[in-house]
Design a protein that fits this description.
The structure is a homodimer.
Chain A: E1 4-14, H1 22-26, E2 32-37, H2 41-44, H3 47-57, E3 61-65, H4 74-87, E4 91-96, H5 98-111, H6 118-122, E5 132-137, E6 149-154, E7 159-164, E8 172-175, H7 185-203, H8 211-232, H9 238-250, H10 265-277, H11 281-296, H12 301-311, H13 321-338, H14 355-362, H15 378-387
Parallel strand pairs in A: 1-8, 2-3, 2-4, 4-5, 5-8
Antiparallel strand pairs in A: 6-7
């Protein structure tokens, strides 16, 4: 176990009807709220009305900024920053999934900074404060509702980059599993793939003696693998959604990787896919992760055997453990297929001619490596794309 | 899953040499520190000196209050409250195990209250604030370093009572597994029994559909059952202590029981034992928990079967599941015995003539029940004592 410094101050209000408490909660943090969301879906479901009445009943002044798209755009973030400054916003309330929340976090740190907010995503500067952010989660997936991270896409060059900062923890997040009942199958598949990916990225580490968090990560992975397929034929089941929604938060709130160093190579690779081709993040992960696993598994066969047996209940082959390791990867692939997802680049029309450019971008022209479990250079990335062909 | 409102603001600084950061950390919260600890052990190990130099190097003024005993006494708490008021203490730094931390928390809320601090432990009043508390943990056991609870013994009547309050979360806790290297075998046994008990109390619930937290609790229980015996013949192993220490915190920081309602009957019963007979808390739990399990298991055999198979790797008897349930209880008992602990009241000289009085005290003269999994009245308590005979 490596030394660590862990704190997660986000307050979670979880359960049925909890979105109606938002006004009372938000009023603890100021008088003027920027309501930030995506398109029409929260209007269609009536959530927008309920949130607005709760905020107004608590005496809050509300400014709205909608239009967040998947892979949230820097241009809208800049618009939000302008509004925060002009209107002296006390609290940004993100109502939506990870894209909306990530956009709100970027607006938050940007509003508190004299320079350009993109500096935080290129590593040129670090946030020193933020306008407060709170969330009402509608899509269990990104875990952004209780994380210190945000991922933004700069349309100028199709660059998708992450930023992590203690100032990005939301002050509170409201999680009502009922709000996910209207999600279509494809979003269920993508969201649960993202949750699983957050656990997998933390699980594959070179740090030894991390057994508590191994057990916790394995438990959380088994739980999402068990419940995700159930949603495909029972998409309005509160108990199943509650498992998926809470697992999504726990997967990314950083407690399960205390004392470890996660990998994050697959996430970095996927950012190139979705930055260049605008495919959903979870869809990209379902393609990249099995290929990444095939490429790296010999680096630590024991860990892949552990994954196969403890998470995917593969039989242990004591004479040829590598076969067990591979069985785990095949079972994971089978899970994604069962969820109706593509597991090959060709299935989403990303063909060989793009490999070179994606690998180049992902490694900044082969000047940096990505991932921690194994350091991947440009050649490794091309190899992984071939394994995902 | 039941609705929940979860927040744990305690910052954890975990790892080797981390106690040397205490001055810098404490200085963020004020200028005057009350250093609170037990007897001579932290002086013998040199920890007292290291802490004092770190605090003084950070320019802090330090007042000391030592003398905390296991089952911390109300009288010392009152002394601490006086000091806080007279000396205008900004931060109470508890250096020790659960008793020292619980004592510090009581002093903290007491110093911020005009009435008698015991009111918080009888339920007559609720804390509305606290002098800040921070900790350096030396005994992994109680989980108090990141919990909202404190247990104090009123010498007047041998009453041991808990208090829970959001104001009792420490602002930061320093966890260095090396500080536990000097613990004797008996304290290792008691501490790890307490950690296991915190997980067991949360596990046995009547709330259905709590599968994520079931998996997390099972993982944490397996981890403590695996590592505790290792310490008996390798008590200076950093990696093993790191597992035990972090499991101790995670077992009681409330994340693993989100959406559940725990039992806490065994803890309440044990408080009578250690209130009246002054035996160690963990020692009392090792006796009471197996007896409690034998008494309640038919209330929900399925859950005991799950405990037996998922936590203690008992073979499933598909035809007679109750046998599997009992096998889990026997394996738990065997674990405590392997740790060198008594598992019967008679072994610690608590005999039949005391059952009636303990049961009477535990239920306030049969006017209240204890526990949630099953509500236990005075007769039930006597029955449990007989099963622990």
């Amino acid at each position: 176990m490596v030394n660590f410094d862990y704190q997660n101050p986000t307050r979670i209000i979880f359960g049925k009807d909890t979105e109606n408490e938002v006004g009372k909660l938000a009023a603890e943090y100021g008088k003027k709220v920027l309501l930030h969301y995506g398109g029409g879906s929260i209007k269609k479901t009536g959530l927008h009305d309920r949130v607005l009445s709760s905020l107004k009943a608590a005496g809050l002044e509300v400014v709205e900024l909608s239009g967040v798209k998947p892979n949230p755009r820097l241009s809208l973030v800049r618009e939000g920053i302008e509004i925060c400054r002009e209107q002296q916003i006390d609290l940004i309330l993100a109502v939506g999934g990870g894209s909306v929340i990530d956009s709100a976090k970027a607006i938050g740190v940007g509003a508190d900074y004299d320079g350009d907010v993109w500096d935080f995503y290129t590593g040129k500067a670090e946030p020193q404060g933020s306008t407060l952010v709170a969330t009402i989660l509608t899509i269990p997936a990104a875990g952004s509702e209780s994380s210190q991270g945000s991922v933004i896409t700069n349309e100028d060059g199709g660059l998708k980059r992450p930023c992590n900062s203690l100032y990005m923890y939301p002050v509170f997040s409201i999680l009502n599993p009922e709000l996910a009942f209207t999600l279509p199958e494809y979003q269920i598949a993508c969201g649960t793939a993202d949750i699983l990916a957050h656990l997998i990225e933390r699980y594959f580490t070179n740090v030894k003696n991390v057994e508590l968090t191994d057990r916790l990560l394995e438990g959380a992975m088994r739980n999402i693998l068990h419940h995700a397929p159930r949603l495909l034929h029972d998409s309005k089941n509160y108990d199943t959604w509650a498992e998926v929604m809470w697992t999504g938060t726990v997967a990314h709130n950083n407690m399960l990787d205390t004392g470890r160093i996660g990998d994050w190579g697959s996430h970095d690779i996927e950012h190139e896919l979705s930055g260049m081709f605008d495919i959903a993040h979870g869809a990209g992960l379902a393609i990249i992760i099995p290929a990444w696993m095939k490429y790296v598994h010999q680096h630590d066969v024991h860990r892949f055997v552990q994954f196969a047996t403890m998470v995917l209940s593969a039989e242990m082959d004591f004479n040829e453990p590598e076969k067990t390791a591979m069985e785990g990867i095949y079972r994971l692939e089978a899970h994604f297929k069962r969820m109706g997802m593509a597991t090959r680049l060709s299935e989403v029309n990303i063909l060989e001619d793009a490999y070179e450019a994606m690998a180049d971008k992902g490694t900044d022209g082969d000047t940096r490596t990505i991932g921690n479990f194994m350091k991947l250079d440009k050649t490794a990335l091309v190899e992984i794309f071939r394994l995902a062909e």
